[in-house]
Amino acid sequence: MDETLFPHLCAAPAPGFATLADQAAAAEAWETPRWAIAAILDVEIMTAAILDPCCGAGALTVAAEDYGYEVLAMDLYDWGFSARTGVDFLTLKTADLPERFQGGDFTVLMNPPFSRACEFVDRAHALGARKIVCFQRLAWRESGRRRAWWDARPPARVWLCGDRAHTWLFTIPPQDRKGGRFMPTAWFVWERGHKGAEIGGTIWRNKS
Ligand SMILES: C[S@@+](CC[C@H](N)C(=O)[O-])C[C@H]1O[C@@H](n2cnc3c(N)ncnc32)[C@H](O)[C@@H]1O
């Protein structure tokens, strides 16, 4: 996959931020690793329509479109990618969505800020999403503080990223990406109507 797909961000920082880097730190704007996106798109079939509610620089949207999905991308901040900015997903209502997304026949594919991830999943459920596929640090699932939340919403599947993911704030250009944040991550999948055990699997950077 092309690691230099988004070498630039052409947006100006939002009011209240001196620089785009400040905005990225506040927005927890960590880019999803390309290999992890390709790997989840290989193992999970999405609905034809996908909502990427916090699209950032577009990593998920571009990859899903390459797979032939129709993607509606939006973000609270303007990162120079989506035309739908200033949209707070946590207050979004069904009536705010295009008609195609009002019957619930869509997937929410996302990598939300860690600190708000539970709220993002709850909002996706409230909007009636048929499927929710969420990238997050594994620590999200481990936490005792969120135990009741997880008990009430068991995912259908959890795909552990076998190769730990290096992630960078997407304001850091590819040529400067050394080191990065190196941590266990996974994709968490909810499906409407799912009953039964939570299944675990592992995805890898290289298929074999
Ligand atoms: C971890 S980044 C993920 C970006 C991109 N989707 C990716 O996978 O590389 C989180 C994104 O959430 C956005 N965000 C934060 N709070 C938000 C909110 N309340 N509503 C919509 N987007 C939000 C940030 O601006 C940032 O782009």
Strand order of the largest sheet: 2-1-3-4-8-5-9
Q: Hey, roughly how much beta strand do the residues contain?
A: 15-25%
Structural class: alpha/beta
Number of domains: 1
CATH H-tier superfamily: Vaccinia Virus protein VP39
Largest sheet: 7 strands, mixed
CATH architecture: 3-Layer(aba) Sandwich
Considering DSSP H and I runs of 4 or more, what fraction of the residues is helical? 10-25%
In round numbers, the mean pLDDT is 91
Q: What would you call the shape?
A: globular
Question: How many β-strands, per DSSP?
Answer: 9
The Cα radius of gyration reads 16 Å
Query: Low-confidence spans: pLDDT under 50, at least 5 residues?
Result: 1-7
Distance between the termini: 16 Å
Q: What is the H-and-E element order?
A: HHEHEEHEHHEEEEE
CATH topology heading: Rossmann fold
Q: Identify every distinct bound molecule in the structure, by name, code or SMILES.
A: S-adenosylmethionine
The total of helices stands at: 6
What is the CATH first-level class name? Alpha Beta
Structure description:
This is Methyltransferase. InterPro entries: SAM-dependent_MTases_sf. This protein is an alpha/beta fold and 208 residues long. It contains six helices and nine strands, in the order ααβαββαβααβββββ. β1, α3 and β2 form a beta-alpha-beta unit. α2 packs across α3 (59-66). The longest helix is centred in the first third of the chain and has 10 residues, at 34-43. The two termini are 16 Å apart. The model is unreliable at 1-7 (pLDDT under 50). It binds S-adenosylmethionine.
